[in-house]
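Subject: Protein record for review, amino acid sequence with backbone structure tokens
Concerning: The relation between a protein's sequence and the shape of its backbone.
How to read it: Take the token row as a discrete description of the fold.
Enclosed: The protein record, placed directly beneath this head.
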Amino acid sequence: MFYGCRCASFKALVIAVAVVCLNWSSGAWAGVQAHHGTIDTLFSGSMFQFGNGLAYDNGLLYYFDYNRVVSIDVNSEAVVDLATVGSNAGPAFVTYYNGNTYASYTTSYASVTEAAGSSTGVVSGGIYTEKSTLSGTYDAAVAPGGTTYIVASPYPLGSENGTEIHTIDWSTGATTQIGVIGGPTGGVAVDASGNLYYAHFNDSAVYRFDAADLAGGSVTLDDATLIANTQSGPGYLALNNELIFVTEGKTINAYDLATGTLRYTAATVNDEAGAQGAQESIYFGSIGLNGNTLYAVTSNYDYTFAPDANPISQVLAIGVPEPASLALLIGGGLTMAVRRRCHR
């Protein structure tokens, strides 16, 4: 994931608090709503295969689409293939730092006897080079100094262990376990100070691991600070200086970083009759924030995926309010949430 910057201005359309619901002919899935701004698809409203993982840098959005990593120009919507990755890959994440693109995908699914197989590597010069086979990779975030944190569950289904935090040396591919969280894997994001935020599905909560604790090389959930109790099990994260955006299945909510208060809902998905005649069962995947644009992957799990013939994913650009303008959207005071250390 990536953390975003704050823009100096805020568009009048957001002040009007427009609710926009674009149908299929307009590009976005029917039933996808942006609650405080515009919504549009990238790649000229076309479909991607079946993807996940987003990273933004200097006008380009890096995205893992089925078995290829691409860049998307967020202004022209031009899509460039950067590398073919694996075969029938299940995309996990894409990160970008200092001119380098990194990606990870699932090579085999977990069973009661084996952990999920994964491949993590570097995309450069049109080629994907595998660096690590750390099992069960799910998401990653790059701190401002370049440290890459990977969350993974390198255990069989039903294991009492669960999610771990690893760092990776991209020059050698060596990974180092620096934290044990347990439970199912969740999304991560970092702030400008290098603190790591984690979406804990079972707890319906977002936690923060301080950079200083991470540097110590051995953290557990007891070392984390509770940032927000979410409305339901969280998936992926993106943040700016004041808010953390959280996917919760069919909803993206924005929570106050200082208080944990739910500030507003950025986008929702409603099931509707789809192009294939069935109910559209759409969920949000990876998200990323740049200024007042929230990028989000959506996939329709009621569609039968078939490479080329029947793609099921889109990448959306969703307008969201700038933090300084939130007073226009909130009536009355905020309920203060008590931040506490988590003890288990």
